[in-house]
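Re: the 244-residue chain
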Amino acid sequence: MNASDASPSPSPGAVLSMPIDPATRDLIDAALNTVMESAAADASLSMGTLGRCADYALVGARVLSLLLNRPYVAVSGGEIIDCGDGLYVVLFPSRDARRRARKLSDLKDYHCWIEALHSMPDGSHRLESIDFTARHDRLVADMFDIPYTRQDGRDYLWEWHDRIPEVPMQARHQLAANGRNGDWMWTDKNCLRLLRLYEEEHDSLLNTLAGKVLHALADAMQARATAIPVAAAGSSKPQWAEIG
């Protein structure tokens, strides 16, 4: 097996084991997004969940840490969005804005996502990157009046960092900040500081939201578990046994 195909050893006490299959990833994403959409509606946010990447990352990290019994953390910094046809959006606050901000809401154009550094069986380490707000890329492009022509968009990114293609070399000269180093997302110490402060101030709410996500996920997984045997009733193959 290639090092790039390696997965961490099972974690004792985890509800789920790695690697998480795509169908279960979809359920986690859907449960998180449903709870975030409901919270945004309850708070009468005019833009809905757009711009709430900190909440997605902080709640998502808590959910994943509980499910996998591993340390998942929300991080913050900059992002490059590929809009297609050689057009990009760069989200990264200016240096002056990052230094002057006293709270996360003082900033704009930052990005938050989730990371986890895993120890591999061979003693190496591998970084996992998760972004549950990729679903907003088209809306962000619209806000910047940039045409979004990509047809391969997805609701979320969930990948090993070493498997994420780098920013194309021919595009780097157009892009500011860390895009020149080939990364689509990068952390910044000031953005991280403000994110940690936001997390401390909203700890109780974040825990409540994480609990709602876990309940929604449990309901979805139970529904899946009961639906698959029914769908397989006419087949001699025990498809229900493949759930895992």
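DSSP finds seven helices and six strands in the chain.
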